[in-house]
Amino acid sequence: MIPFLDIKQLNARFESEFKQEFEAFLDKGWYVLGDQVTQFEEAYARYCGTQHCVGPANGLDALRLILEGYKIQNKLQPGDEVLVASNTYIATVLGVLQAGLQPVLVEAEATAFNFDFADLTRRVTPQTKVIMPTHLYGQLCDMEKVHAFAKAHKLLVVTDAAQSHGATAVSGKRSGSLADASGHSFYPTKNLGALGDGGAITTDDKELAQVLRALRNYGFEKRYVSTYMGLNSRLDEIQAAFLNIKLKALDTDNEKRRAIARRYLEEIKNPAITLPFWDGSDNHVFHLFVIQTKRRDALAAYLKETGIGTIIHYPIPPHKQQALSDFAHLEFPVTEQLHKEVLSLPISPMLTSQEVSYIIEQVNAF
Ligand SMILES: *Cc1c(COP(=O)(O)O)cnc(C)c1O
After folding, report:
1. What is the mean pLDDT of each run of 10 residues along the chain (366 residues)?
2. Number of H helices, E strands in the chain
3. Separation of alpha carbons 251 and 266, rounded Å
4. pTM above 0.70, yes or no
5. Which domains does the chain have, with CATH numbers?
6. What residues are in contact with ligand 1 under a 6 Å CB criterion?
7. Which of 98, 134, 159, 160 is the best mutation target for the ligand 1 pocket, counting ligand atoms within 8 Å of the beta carbon and taking the most?
8. DSSP E strands, 261-327
């Protein structure tokens, strides 16, 4: 049996270091916003190539807080519009709504799973103030195009970088340093995953970082002095300790994911299946390896029978979710098609080459 992702196995490599850090944590007795959080924020900013990193409790809050921060800076007003891809994970849309702004969904394209740039032009209005691409499945969005569009329409650029830790553009810039501000998630299944929830915001904007540091902690600029209406959304100290250990393995894990992707792309040969586009560069960290097929449900059932776990990312687009019924009248044919046809194959960096061969064999036999 090859599960879709065995997180316990992923983390087992670090067990003795985790135990050591947990002992130190117990000895110290400092549980919230301590040295480990500070150390991780510095290390992750350095890793991404930004001046600042602030750690909130999760990726959803990271996205929401960036927008709340811009509101405090008067760069955004309640109700301003934010361009978001219609095939993104629900959290991108919720982050915008929870910040009191209006998500404007944009049609997707089925090659890089990102914005259809022609549709972007149709959706932008004088109320549009932010463009918020998601580096979906671990592949960087075409940020040159995004920045050109943002410049033409005077928009802030915020990226949802929850799936793209370590992805590197041809310029050498890493995910997290390609926008005015970026939100990251350390949910356990992500390429850099904690042993619980965690998030980060990276930016070069010193004033924004300062506001966000306060906003994640009741708006306190000093203890018990609330300057803003903040949240309680702090990266947990013990999770930061675990992340400090795991960050060191991120690049080699991403390289392993790319090696598996390379094999899938070369060796999967099945006319019923469309493989994902990849230019072969480090701009993709294969958080997910997403194939498309008209016979998606049959393939998933077949693979299950042969002992291979798969997951659908995602079965329902945001505008068809009951929770977002205000968007239900919208139509995004490409996005809707994608949600019917996508299937994610296992791509854990722990997969053995025999396991990868077995998966390829079974996919080809379908
Ligand atoms: C995981 C994820 C989030 C949300 O992160 P949480 O830490 O689960 O809140 C946001 N956007 C995308 C694209 C994600 O994959």
Report:
1. 97 98 98 98 98 98 98 97 98 98 97 94 97 98 97 98 97 97 98 98 98 96 90 98 98 98 98 97 98 98 98 97 97 97 98 98 98
2. 13, 11
3. 23
4. yes
5. 7-247 (3.40.640.10), 250-365 (3.90.1150.10)
6. 58-60, 88-89, 91-92, 134, 160, 162-163, 185, 187, 197, 199
7. 160
8. 289-292
